[in-house]
Queue: 4 jobs
Job 1
Amino acid sequence: MNGIPEPTNDHERAIAEAIDNKLLASDSPYESIVAEIVMSVPFDMSIADTQFLFNYVHGKLTHSVKKQPARGIVPDDLKRSG
């Protein structure tokens, strides 16, 4: 799967909005965000809804990781001494 899936119905739009709000409002681990979303949506989630939820969260997290600069050990000759 490449990228973040686009919501195609009302349930998926509600799930995406809830995920986006939770990701912006907290730095909780994604597992707790997923659990909160499942408990907070005002409808019973179908298998397709659940699949969308996991794919959407995975896409969001993968996308945000790719946008962040890589971290690593700086070689000694590149370190600045203060």
Job 2
Amino acid sequence: MTGFRKRGMLIAAGTIAVGAGIGAAALGAGSAHAQASGTIAITSVSANSNGEPQFPQVTVSITCPANDRFIVDANTIQSATSEGSTATALCTGNAQTVTVNTEFPSSSPSYSGDGAGPVSVGATLQFIPAGTNFGTSSDTYIGTTANLTFP
């Protein structure tokens, strides 16, 4: 009887170890993108290359998993809100500098743009695995804000 108990305990222990190993392997395989990470940091805000303050440019530094696709949205707030976004681009897996051109909505009253002084800036990085569509549960969003001086 003692031999049977020892054998039963060894079988049970082996089953638990194998089950735990399978569970760990399944967890690792099933969450490959769920653990993907990215970063976004606002580095500057300025007038566009033509010096037009009604079209502020927000420059950010991003990282996201290599071969994922991304979009960056940005806005500035200084008496009115400007907004803009980039076209879809490919993540390199390394730090990338991205410039977002924003503009003030046509529905706002006539506004000359951001003036010299403090401005609140926000930016969001949205990235997705290669071969998937934006707007699904696999999208990852990372946002940040900064208080900067324009220009």
Job 3
Amino acid sequence: MTLPHQRTVKRAVAAILSEELAYCRKLLSFGVDLPKPAVINKCRLKADTVTAAMGLYTKACLSYKGIIHLCEAGLDRTAAPVNRSLFETLLNITFLLRRRVSLNQFDFAAGKKTPTKKPLGLFGKKLDTHFRTDLYCAFCTLRDQKMVGQWTRTPGLKRTGKAAHKRLSALPQPHVAAIGAQWEKRLKEKNTCAGLGIADYAASLGKGFYMWYRSVYAMDSQSVHQSDSLAYLEIDDRVTNIAPRWYTSPDQVRETLKIASLMFVRCTDELNRRLRFGRDASDRITDFRNELNGWTQ
């Protein structure tokens, strides 16, 4: 089964965006080859930190590959949820690997040029790399517990849920114990491993992340939350003819590729800054970033 004009659109995208697609494939190849085992094995970071960061980075590579694949077929809107996921992956990689991170709650009231911020209380903990790793791993554990706990109350899943809950409860939970009861309560109430809402989390990591949150994340969330149905229709001025809108335009496909590439370059940069894969890797990351600035809008 193929969509209407699928082959024609794919050929058109390949021709019109040949340079952009070539760039994306080159960047992906670089990103996949970046984590050198010899460097990683000598890393002085805590093993749990390296494991979590490399898992997230691998996810970023796969997300970027998926976005390229969808855009090659002209399906940039279908790539929106993957782009959103890539943004969240980037946040977590940055949170884990930055040498220093501060967490703040912001007042994003309308009309404020610069939002005021209030440092997030840390309950006596130091927000170093080890503790941030504990936060991320504890968050993952707590999310699994919440999911399985919901199974035990869902008709048709109760038996499976009880068995899964029993297995999960038997596993050691050192990271949950390490963060303490106050942080555990905070993580259960929030949807990020930083114990903040996604807007505050992004803004805490830097202005660029917050700008992505307000633009990329907000736009792509429309797809995730199913509030974009009209974007999939061609409707005339009189609303007398309604037809499916299977594709957007090469310009919109290009923009999706550019945004994904900006975020993926940042993933490679955050990994390289902490694990240090060498001067050549740093130079290539700079080149990839600079080349993106030359893309037409």
Job 4
Amino acid sequence: MTDSSGGSERHGRTGVLAVGAGAFAVFCCAGLPLVASLVGGLTLAGVLGVSAGVLIAAAAVATAVVALRTRRRRSAASSTARTGAKL
């Protein structure tokens, strides 16, 4: 009779261990890949965001340079037209 009471006590512990092992397996097999994909997605978004920012800044600088050159050419052309000089 002593064996049956000890066995039921061990069975209760085994059930708790099984539930714990199941929760750990779900966390490892589902939770960790989910966290890894979220971190990877944030990293990818950061890289793409920085790249897009650099491209936008380069386009803005190029537009400003073209606008300044155009303005200088127009002002030079209008000043030479006023003075009558040829380029």
